[in-house]
Amino acid sequence: MQFIRQELRHGRKIMLIALIVAAFGGFVLIQNNGVMKANTRSLYSEQVHNATHQAQRADLIVTGTVEKVSDGKWSTPNNRRPENITNENLDNIHHDVRIDVNETIKGEDRDWVTVRIDSGTVDGYTNNKPSADYDEGEKVLVFLYRWEGNYKTVADNHGKFDLSKEIIDRENAPEKFQQSINTSSLIEQLRETYN
Questions:
Q1: 195 or 142: which leads in pLDDT
Q2: Which phi and psi angles does 172 have, rounded to 5°?
Q3: Could you tell me the residue range of the domain that residue 55 belongs to?
């Protein structure tokens, strides 16, 4: 009888694990010598590198020229440094990028857009979250989403393309997405989809 109870508990654990995996998706359970292991490579990394997925997530897709990259600022209510600096409130450092829009591919037409970047340095403190790097004068294609009244780059640095490069290599992407991307072809495909 005890053996049956143990098997039922074991079966419930496996069922619970299967339900959790199904709920979160992107995980694969592998049984190796009776031990269940989770392959943590999730769908997220594939979606991050997929321009189609980025376009679907974007509220705004534009081409343009980076006009200004601001210095770091505090994202506090009064835009001042917090009294006590902790790792948590270092996340309150950002900088803004103003892009003069050349073409709106998806979203409402506009002359310019400000993109909030969750990184920067202010008062000697640095928030260095992985994010897209923008340089003044740079020609870009950007996938942006709306967040708390600001636009942010979809998938951090993967949602920004430097248009001075005709071909973009994605050597750091998962193998499935390591192919090069022709920026002209990408823009044309986006126009066909959203215009």
A1: 142
A2: -90, 0
A3: 46-194
Domain total of the chain: 2
Clarify whether residues 52 and 97 are in a common domain: yes
Query: DSSP readout, 54-120?
Result: HHHH-SEEEEEEEEEEPPPEE-STTSS--SS--HHHHTTEEEEEEEEEEEEEESS--SEEEEEESEE
The residue type at 74 = W
CA quadruple 151, 157, 163, 164: dihedral positive or negative? positive
The β-bridge relationship of strands 112-117 and 73-74 is: unpaired
Q: Are 58 and 113 in contact (CB under 8 A)?
A: no
| Predicted local distance difference test score (pLDDT) of residue 12 | 55
Predicted confidence band at 92 (pLDDT cuts at 50, 70, 90)? confident
9/85 same-domain check: no
pLDDT category, 30, cuts 50, 70, 90?
A: very low
CATH classification at residue 134:
2.40.50.120
Contact residues for 83 (Cβ-Cβ < 8 A; gap 6+) = none
Query: Does residue 62 share a domain with residue 12?
Result: no
- The answer on 114 and 20 residing in a single domain is no
Helix (H) or strand (E) holding 141: strand 139-147
How far lies 48's CA from each of 45, 83, 90, 97, 187, in Å?
A: 5, 36, 25, 21, 18
Regarding pTM above 0.85, the answer is: no
